[in-house]
Design brief:
113 residues; mainly alpha
């Protein structure tokens, strides 16, 4: 279920992106200091939330590429499950097959086939 959970979390991430864009859109350097600080702090908070959702390993501050790759693999396994696990492989393949089938249907509808 990790792959589907990640897809759902992607939707949450997109909502946070929109909130971030909205905060930046209303951020006006000519507004009074308190209003500016409120929007600035909200945008910074949302940005930090996005970073922690998209790349949670960033806060650990890896010192080398090798260490970063190991941390990214650990985070991938924690988020999606071990890619070598047969059950996880089957779930990922079902999702890929679903996406390919849906894409083929859209293409055939688009091309009038």
């Amino acid at each position: 279920m990790a792959v589907f959970d990640h897809c759902f979390n992607g939707v949450i991430g997109r909502l946070n992106e929109y909130k971030f864009q909205l905060n930046l859109a209303v951020l006006n350097y000519s507004m009074d200091f308190d209003a500016f600080n409120t929007h600035w702090n909200q945008a910074d908070m949302i940005r930090n939330c996005l970073i922690s959702n998209i790349a949670p390993w960033i806060k650990t501050g890896p010192k080398s590429t090798k260490e970063m790759m190991a941390q990214m693999r650990e985070q991938y396994i924690a988020t999606f499950g071990d890619p070598e696990d047969p059950e996880n492989k089957a779930e990922m393949q079902r999702l890929i097959d679903h996406w390919e089938e849906r894409t083929a249907k859209h293409r055939s509808a688009r091309d009038g086939i």
